[in-house]
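Hi all, a correction to my earlier message: I attached the wrong file for Sentrin-specific protease 1-like. Here's the right sequence:
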Amino acid sequence: MVKRKAIEAVEMELQERTFDNNRVILAYEIYNGVAEAFATRREKRFFVEMATPGTWVFTEHVDECFRGLLELKKAYPYIFRGDVAMMDSCFSMIVQGAFIEGGPTNVPETILVYTRGEIDDWPSTPWDKAAFILVPYCFNGHWVLARIVPEAKKLVILDSDHSVDSNCKIILQEVTPLARMMPHILVAMGVQTDTDTQWTIVRPKDFPKQSLSGECGVYAIAAATFTLADRDAYTINDAIVSDFRKVFYLLFVGSIVVVGLRVCELVVVVLHVIAFIFCY
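and the right structure:
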């Protein structure tokens, strides 16, 4: 039922955006300001790796997939959750650079512009309206997704391969700066007045595990997408991740960056993406 209503809503909107020559400009409407960058990367076959199972994805892949999800959420607010904030891979590095163990905790403006959702080409939800805050981390060539739950004061690390950091020592080193700074960030935002609150870090054992090397980044992207679509991230598996590679390849390389698509072609692409997300 949810999937059918989502598809019907998209079909109706696409029809409303149709012009006399049976063309639409949804590409530029969704990717205002970044379509040219996507087109350039298409020429460089930037996303070819996304379609190949087992191929490691880089920071640029993860960030552009997150950006694409944010733009889809912006275009279709009746389909995707509006209370999910998504950070890029630079955010964790900014936090680590600002954190001083045992020293004063100052929250720089470079962090607050993220939390307020004020970055022009990154239309994320402000933290004071977020039920989840998603932050991708990469260490030793391994990707995990930190899913922050402000209400529970908890950072949940969704990790598809515990063998990379079996005792969780490296993850704690990477994520602890953000956990320590969370109350100070919220105070700086005016959301709370107490900086003494403690935030916990957990890595659930029941998050699905990858069986193929090189899939950690796509698992993180899939977990972010399922969270945004209000789906259970703990149902992700290798088959879904393999399909995710194809869907994102299609989304970014195959069609949406092309201006002047025929309506029938654009319907196929957008419905393919949305139906895929909601069919699991």
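Sorry for the mix-up. Residues 169-189 form the longest helix (21 residues).
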